Amino acid sequence: MTSPNFSDARIEEGIRLFNECQFFACHDVLEDYWSEVVGPEKSFFQGLIQAAVALFHFEGGNFGGACRMYASSREYMSPSAEGIAGINVAKLLEDMKTCFAELCVPRSSYPTDVQLNPNLIPRIDRDNQPYSQSGIADDF
Fold this sequence. Notes:
Blueprint: H1 9-19, H2 23-34, H3 41-60, H4 63-77, H5 89-100
């Protein structure tokens, strides 16, 4: 695959799974798509996968893994903050920051009393436009 196909059904499926808090399944679906992407967009999708993994770890109480994956996901997604594939990346980054704020506060040891707040779990917002391979919405 020379350029990403942002109309790929795996993106929609990954977003659906993420928004339904099925983070491990989201990871699997998006990783399958990511493995075929060549180009600068690959880093964004790696960050999106890591965001799902961070939430999976947070939910499961693996706080160290959650913080590491969260930090890494930000590094990969931040260059695409203006948006990619119709995804509101800036909003996702801000919502992830809010969700992980309490967990990732620097401290001498990992917290034992922090839980993933269901009200703070981010959602991925994507417009419903069909996308060409360039990632630009097709106008019909």
